[in-house]
From TrEMBL, chain A:
Localisation per UniProt entry: Endoplasmic reticulum membrane
Keywords: Endoplasmic reticulum, Glycosyltransferase, Membrane, Transferase, Transmembrane, Transmembrane helix
Species the sequence originates in: Bombardia bombarda
Family per record: Belongs to the ALG6/ALG8 glucosyltransferase family.
Phylogenetic lineage: Eukaryota, Fungi, Dikarya, Ascomycota, Pezizomycotina
Molecular function terms, GO-annotated: dolichyl pyrophosphate Glc1Man9GlcNAc2 alpha-1,3-glucosyltransferase activity
GO biological process: one example: protein N-linked glycosylation
E.C. number: 2.4.1.-
Keyword Cytoplasm assigned: no
Pathway connected to this protein: Protein modification; protein glycosylation
Function according to Swiss-Prot or TrEMBL: Dolichyl pyrophosphate Glc1Man9GlcNAc2 alpha-1,3-glucosyltransferase that operates in the biosynthetic pathway of dolichol-linked oligosaccharides, the glycan precursors employed in protein asparagine (N)-glycosylation. The assembly of dolichol-linked oligosaccharides begins on the cytosolic side of the endoplasmic reticulum membrane and finishes in its lumen. The sequential addition of sugars to dolichol pyrophosphate produces dolichol-linked oligosaccharides containing fourteen sugars, including two GlcNAcs, nine mannoses and three glucoses.
Protein name according to UniProt: Alpha-1,3-glucosyltransferase
Annotated TM spans: 7-26, 98-118, 153-169, 181-203, 223-242, 319-337, 357-379, 386-404, 416-435, 447-468, 474-500
Automatic annotation (TrEMBL), chain B:
Protein name (record): Alpha-1,3-glucosyltransferase
Organism taxonomic ancestry: Eukaryota, Fungi, Dikarya, Ascomycota, Pezizomycotina
GO molecular function: dolichyl pyrophosphate Man9GlcNAc2 alpha-1,3-glucosyltransferase activity
GO CC, alphabetical: endoplasmic reticulum membrane
Keyword Transferase: yes
Family recorded in the similarity comment: Belongs to the ALG6/ALG8 glucosyltransferase family.
């Protein structure tokens, strides 16, 4: 078997055709955000990029992404000069839409290239097949389709860089480039900081310390890695640092004034916590608990801002931070002891999990931080797969509220169901049996869990509207995120066990 | 024969003598010859193709829905808007007016001119839509409405109608036809995807907006019933197709010829003939019954079919021309009790068959339009042109019908349907450019047969006809800014099947058991290559060069002329293959195999 069909390129062509057909679909404010950034980077001098605030959508990504926007704006101004004017708020001529939508598809080629690297780096035979299927599943991911090609963002390109970096970590010879690519990624989008601890531990152990003894430091490697990272950060932030703009940039990158939960609750432990609080509002009078009256209105309104709990104690950012660090450290201990590539990917996944589940103001889109690294090892054996399954369902279902317009409803549901059937079936055929016994009842739980999603989607999209009309709008959102949260937490617990026992 | 209720074991014809080689050859393919085969490659080992069927249907549905996000015909184009408004308006009038007024109501504004099944379908869609938002179909006030939610509803009705009629019919047809032709299940799945992703159908129905797939689906069901030997059902389905859209008449000759032939050969079967006749009459009666009963009850209730519109006398529609001063009218008494029904049916016929219009309406890639470029046909009297069109159509469509009559071989059905439909499209009267869907549908079905999608020649020709067909409806799409979905869907299909402009594998790939290209291969590649080059060149012209001021339609005219020549070649290819496969000119052909099976 020389080649495996279908090839990644063939799938990419068909997917691109579908994505172009989605050009007229709903686009969120992120479309205007990115148009505004094109305008800022194109028409203003560097020094004003992080101070400009004509639009409420100020530049809040790190500088490399701003440079990336600047490069794109050079083409954009040829397509439609009005697109790159800062004052043209909410500008969306058809040229603008075509250009921006098309730029997402083109920059996604980075992802295609990285996935091809993944396939090429896998040993021949069954594991190459598995890598190919996993690569296609990432390429066709409903998450990327919903977030990038409808809602509008550039995650495909970013995750392509992440995957390239993860693949480079597979060989000793390319460890340095892996670290440098990741550093560059951090300078494009700082959300990947959540995964940085795993990189730190892995590179420290495999690159900076001797493979024979952890007490032997490889000084030259340390210098190369440290120097390289410093150079990349210097390139990105240097010009701004020279002008003394670092505090301004940092305040843009890390806006701590936001609340615990995002507008829609991301499916993490805080969603479960909020759900419990809502339930307790009803139960508290009977149990004799005090209910804070001022908090009654806030959670259900789902606005960005402070989240107040009516019965349960409020959560401070420190608590989130401590829990995140704690649950990131646990898998890192094992990674430090056994720095294999599989363990590295597992640790990256678990870092993603910890930050998603316990983080402050987590966005539901951040679930890709978990799903995409996990996809790389989901096919390792059946135990990995059974932990992946509820995540695949929950993670993608939790993205549904991002698109609320009726014409996108069939796209998001049919596409996600299509993807789930196709890849859960394909994964099921490809994943080899594990040497260790399965969890007790875990598979049953996940089958039950997956089947619950069907009535849930039906209720949220159809039944609720018919029964309640426009009232109680928070109910479907709350059900979706609580349901998804159970799946994400369940798969996290499952994967923790798999990670530590394999 | 007591009708279709007699149970026939479905898998009776599972003799494998003819099928073995094909099965084995398909199973032994080393590598996929074109991307669609590669994409379905992992499904080759599956015991049952039903496992991937839901995925295929979902993917086809997703592409349809996504294509539907684009604009529709007549979007924000007052005063008349377009096909979308016509269909919406029929939902408006059928849900609000008494049934006897449907075919009389305000004819200048998209008066109903499709047969009754379309009217009933509109009524159903209109009733459902009015539950969601009555303003969409409010009488008079909703004209030209372009509420985005209405668009979603209308798109949904097209998809749901297609998934209730065309898709099941296509799935069943492909299954039966490939079994009968001894084609492997996996190959049949490849063919099914190619058929469902046909760009012309998606562009006309789901983008430009119409319900052709319902009619085409009934025709597919007709053919599928013929394959299964359920002749009575095939008659019923064909009446349904005619009752939905009169265009199904393009297929009337082969349906009639095949059904008659199957009653006469190999031995005369009068019971079957009678059964078919009764089923046809019964189906027509059921089709017209709501209209007739409605008319009677409206007359009793004192409702006139020709009401005054807003009290304005001038808008009263004239009596049906068939009853106005013709020989027929002398025998009819307008005060008789049967008169309203006759009047209703006469109006129906008048609306459905507009004999009064010209030879061709717009610029269509058929013979007359192309001939008109060379020689101005307006110089001739219309009556002569009508007669000429009739003779030419008969000359083009009778040969395939005679072949299928003399050799009622099930495997020949798609070819016979395609050839006849090409004949009608090229030579008949009052052809619309969207009618190219009618010959394309059966021709594309060839992919599911023996020497189908895996054979170079079939893939090349079916692909050529489809891409040429899309190209001739491009001017229609370009008028409402639908260039992008046109390019995407057409190029995607070409890519999937390995056709130009994305690949030349359908012409030059090595094929098992065939040495080199042969003169046919070279001739095909040469002819098709010329057309593809021209199409590409034409697109560049259309995109970047303005036509000369005195000839603003020059590009469209070129499109029409070249399209007609290409379709003529497709007609000849279908006819040649039909005659060849029927073995009517001496060769063995496939008939014997089928006779043995029967």
């Amino acid at each position: 078997m020389t080649e495996i069909y279908p090839s990644l390129a063939q799938c990419a062509v068909v997917a691109a055709a579908f994505k172009i057909l989605l050009f007229p679909a709903y686009k969120s404010t992120d479309f205007e955000v990115h148009r505004n950034w094109l305008a800022i980077t194109n028409s203003l001098p560097l020094w004003e990029w992080y101070y400009e605030k004509t639009s409420e959508w100020t530049l809040d990504y790190p500088p490399l992404f701003a440079y990336f926007e600047w490069i794109m704006s050079q083409v954009a101004k040829l397509v439609d000069p009005a697109m790159v004017r800062v004052r043209n708020l909410e500008y969306a001529s058809w040229e603008t839409v075509y250009f921006q939508r098309f730029s997402v598809i083109v920059t996604e080629l980075v992802l295609v290239y990285a996935l091809q690297m993944l396939i090429d780096s896998s040993p021949r035979g069954a594991s190459k097949r598995a890598a190919q299927v996993a690569a296609i599943s990432i390429l066709l991911s409903p998450g990327l389709l919903i977030i990038d090609h409808i809602h509008f963002q550039y995650n495909g390109c970013m995750y392509g860089i992440l995957i390239a970096s993860l693949v480079l970590a597979r060989k000793r010879a390319t460890l340095l480039s892996s670290g440098l690519v990741f550093a560059a990624l951090l300078c494009m989008k700082h959300i990947y900081l959540y995964l940085a601890p795993a990189y730190f531990v892995f590179l420290l152990r495999t690159y900076c310390l001797s493979p024979r003894s952890i007490f032997q430091i490889q000084v030259l490697n340390c210098l190369k890695l440290g120097g390289g990272i410093a150079a990349i950060f210097g390139l990105a932030f240097g010009p701004f640092a020279v002008q003394g703009q670092m505090p301004q940039i940092l305040s843009r990158l890390f806006p701590f004034s936001r609340g615990l939960c995002h507008a829609y609750w991301a499916p993490n432990v805080w969603a479960i916590y909020s759900f419990l609080d809502r339930v307790l509002i009803v139960l508290a009078p009977r149990a004799g608990l005090a209910v804070r009256a001022d908090a009654l209105q806030s959670v259900t309104r789902g606005l960005v801002g402070d989240t107040a709990f009516a019965v349960l104690p409020d959560i401070a950012p420190r608590v989130c931070f401590a829990l995140t660090v704690l649950f990131q450290t646990i898998p890192l201990v094992k990674l430090f002891a056994q720095p294999t590539w599989d363990n590295f990917i597992g640790a990256v996944t678990l870092c993603g999990y910890a930050s998603f589940l316990f983080g402050w103001h987590v966005h539901e889109k951040a679930i890709l931080l978990v799903i995409i690294p996990f996809s790389l090892i989901a096919l390792k054996d059946r135990r990995h797969l059974s932990a992946f399954r509820p995540l695949a369902v929950a993670g993608h279902v939790s993205l549904f509220p991002l698109l609320f317009t009726p014409s996108e409803f069939p796209v998001k549901t049919a596409y996600t169901i299509f993807w789930l059937i196709l890849f859960l079936m394909a994964f099921d055929q490809l994943a080899p049996a594990s040497g260790r016994p399965r969890f007790f009842l875990f598979d049953r739980f996940s089958t039950l869990y997956i089947s619950v999603s069907i009535p849930l989607i039906l209720y949220c999209s159809l039944v609720h509207g018919v029964v309640f009309g426009k009232s109680y709008e928070f109910l479907p959102l709350m059900f979706t995120s609580s349901y998804s949260a159970i799946g994400v937490v369940g798969s996290w617990v499952g994967f923790m066990v798999v990670y530590f026992t394999s | 024969m007591a009708g279709p209720s007699v149970h026939k074991p479905r898998r009776k014809v599972q003799k494998r003598e003819g099928g073995h080689t094909a099965h084995d050859r398909d199973a032994n393919i080393r590598r996929p010859a074109f991307p669609l085969a590669a994409i379905l490659w992992p499904a080759r080992g599956f015991a049952s193709q039903w496992e991937i069927l839901p995925l295929i249907l979902m993917a086809a549905g997703l592409f349809r829905w996504a294509a539907g996000l684009w604009g529709y015909s007549g979007f924000e184009k007052p005063p008349m808007f377009g096909d979308y408004e016509a269909q919406r308006h029929w939902m408006e009038l059928t849900t609000h007016l008494p049934i006897s007024q449907w075919y009389f109501h305000d004819l200048p504004w998209w008066g109903l001119d499709y047969p009754p099944l379309t009217a009933y379908h509109s009524w159903l869609c209109g009733k459902i839509g009015s539950l969601i938002d009555p303003a969409w179909f409010a009488l008079y006030t909703s004209r030209g409405i372009h509420d985005p939610n209405l668009k979603i509803f209308m798109r949904a009705t097209v998809i749901v109608s297609e998934y209730l009629v065309f898709i099941p019919a296509a799935v069943v047809f492909v299954r039966r036809f490939s079994r009968l032709s001894g084609v492997a299940n996996w190959t049949a799945s490849v063919a099914l995807v190619a058929i469902l992703m046909q760009p012309a159908t998606i562009l006309v129905d789901h983008v430009h907006f119409q319900y052709n797939t319902v009619m085409l689906g009934f025709v597919l069901a007709t053919m599928s019933s013929m394959l299964a030997g359920r002749y009575l059902w095939s008659a019923v389905y064909f009446v349904a197709a005619l009752g939905f859209k009169q265009m199904a008449l393009y297929y009337a000759f082969p349906v009639f010829a095949f059904l008659l032939g199957s009653c006469l050969f190999p031995r005369v079967n009068l019971a079957r003939l009678t059964g078919i006749a009764i089923a046809t009459v019964a189906a027509f009666t059921i089709l017209l019954l709501p209209l007739i009963i409605g008319t009677i009850s409206d007359v009793k209730a004192g409702i006139s079919p020709e009401p005054l519109l807003d009290g304005d006398n001038d808008l009263r529609s004239p009596p049906p021309p068939l009853l106005n001063g013709t020989a027929l009218s002398a025998y009819l008494d307008p005060s008789a009790s049967y008169y309203p029904i006759v009047e209703q049916l006469a109006q129906l016929v008048h609306r459905i068959f507009p004999f009064a219009r010209g030879l061709f309406e717009d610029k269509v890639a058929n013979f007359w339009c192309a001939l008109n470029l060379v020689y101005k046909l307006r110089a001739f009297p219309p009556a002569l042109l009508q007669r000429g069109a009739l003779l030419a159509t008969l000359a083009a469509t009778l040969p395939p019908s005679l072949v299928i009559f003399a050799r009622p071989d099930k495997l020949l059905l798609p070819l016979a349907f395609a050839t006849t439909a090409w004949g009608f499209f090229l030579f008949s009267y009052q052809v619309h450019e969207k009618s190219v869907l009618l010959p394309l549908m059966p021709m594309t079905l060839l992919l599911a047969g023996r020497g189908g999608v895996m054979a170079r020649e079939t893939r090349a020709w079916v692909g050529f006809a489809n891409l040429l067909g899309c190209w001739t409806i491009f001017p229609l799409l370009a008028r409402v800014e639908l260039r992008v979905p046109y390019a995407v869907l057409t190029l995607l299909w070409a890519y999937l099947l390995g056709l130009p402009p994305t690949s030349v594998s359908a012409y030059f790939d090595r094929e098992d058991g065939v040495d080199g290209l042969g003169w046919r291969g070279w001739a095909t590649a040469f002819v098709h290559g010329g057309f593809y080059l021209f199409m590409g060149f034409w697109h560049v012209l259309e995109m970047f060069v303005k036509p000369p001021a005195e000839k603003p339609d020059l590009w469209v005219v070129m499109n029409v002329g070249v399209g007609a020549v290409g379709f003529g070649i497709c007609y000849l290819w279908c006819l040649g293959r039909l005659v060849g496969e029927s073995g009517i000119l001496g060769g063995g052909g496939g008939v014997d195999v089928v006779k043995k099976r029967q």
